[in-house]
Write a structure and sequence with these properties.
Keywords: DNA-binding, Phosphoprotein. This is Response regulator transcription factor. The protein is α/β, with parallel strands linked by helices. It has one domain: 3-Layer(aba) Sandwich (Rossmann fold), CATH 3.40.50.2300. It has six helices and six strands. The longest helix is centred in the first third of the chain and has 12 residues. The N and C termini lie far apart (about 30 Å).
Amino acid sequence: MKQITLAFVEDHKLVRQMWMTLFEEMPEVKIAGESGSLAEAIPMITEQQPDIVLLDINLPDASGLDAVPYILESSPKTRIVAVSMHNQASYARQMLELGARAYVTKNSSPEEIFEAVKAVMRGEQYICEEIRNAN
């Protein structure tokens, strides 16, 4: 597998730092950047053109539902993995309909988040077990 470039868009600094720590240890991953808001994210994503953006769907300046089109417009080849505390299938469905390629909850294990990233890199969609098992 080629090296995957990742960017993180999450309003909680601690969560962003945990994601960075988790993924920095993986040689197949390069961190492209991180941001706490959509306004900060768009210039970073436009410049870096990451393979994957892990996108929290609750941002201080936009919902993830609003963010997906902006991200895809500024970096059309970037794939989005939506990350949320919401475990309702309707949220996952909406994010995928807007163009996200995967949906995981904040209850997902680090292994499952990385599995979602790998699935998306293979061109697949991914829905976390918590949602698949609930429906």
